[in-house]
Amino acid sequence: MNANSSKPDGGHALTITPREVVVNALSREWQLLLLSGKLLSDASSDESARELVRGGVNWDQVQALAAQHGLTALLYRCLARLEASEIPRDVLGRLWAATEMQRHRNRRRAEELSSLLDLLDKAGILAVPFKGPVLTQSLYGDIALREFGDLDILVRHADVLRARSLLATKGYVDATPIAPELEVAFISAKRQYDFELVHETTGAMVELHWKTNSEFPVERLDDATWWAALDTAELNGNCVRNLRRRELLLVLLLHGSKHQWSRIGWLVDIALLARLCEDGDWHWLASTAKLMRCTKRAGLGLKLAQSLLNAAVPDFTMRALCPTPTMERMVRNVKDSLLEPDVETVSQFTWLRRDVSLYDTGWQRLRQMALLIMTPNASEWSHHANKHNAILAPASARTWRLIKKYMFRMTDNVA
User: Topology of domain 104-243, per CATH?
Assistant: First the structure.
């Protein structure tokens, strides 16, 4: 979409700020990878990719980058379309094999998700899949083109324990078991929003959610009108519930900010979904993010997708969500971590500092620090034998654990 593109919605046109996808300062490998992230190809981007290939590419590096950022299938699709003689046949062969393996794996996971949703539906449990196979099929049009791991299913708070019991009949057990007497307290805890389930035979993962996000849940699960207004999507020939695109966009923006956008593949999701959004969706996104006080978290992902992938985001949305120089600094920090070859890891302390800076208000930042210090995570819930100890974990031991985690350890970016 170019700078003059617009979409109809009540007669209003969107003004899109143009952005260059290929930045000369980036390596050829990174430029090629970003071009492959443009799912809707055009003659200009294809010619840019051909020029990069003709100029010489470190194929081991570009394949490693694609694997790291979940873009192997998109890279193969881009290179196969170029039909350039400079691309080694063994590189194309490896990328094709990886893409086909991903296709078969994703199909199996899609079939499994369909089976689980059918199980819940027959038990009268309302459920919404998000991310995973439904997102892949509806956004990419090809189940092979997006890498995903867990299956994410959203149910009402009142149904979560019954839903988990049903999934247990299909072999899914708790990855971090919680004592039965703590389960109600666990699903009511502020920081908790899902059960992580693992299949006892295959090792496949399901995340059973009662919130999409622990702090900024977009959904209204107790509102019948919310359920009635959901979109639908196709999954294995069946019609399933799907989040509305504006809600899905905000959910994905919040998820990416949680992991500080450590994978380019998540930004591809944003860029593709942005193409489908209309004027009303963007106005809703800006007003809802302000109401929920998550404008920085929403704005960061949009700014990155616009900067790196030429995402079509209207000016009025960018002005609403990215109005300050602080956002430019956040974008630079993430891009440095992603794109600079010498910035491979960040300390846990730096990670925490950047995460805290993404909160809109000082009160939110103080509250998050207090929650981090005083409330147990899922693993700690699993290790306490009773409700009293789980909720009142010894402050000194917890503080020492956090000091070790955030000040002394180094870690790769979260995948």
Answer: Beta Polymerase; domain 2 (3.30.460)
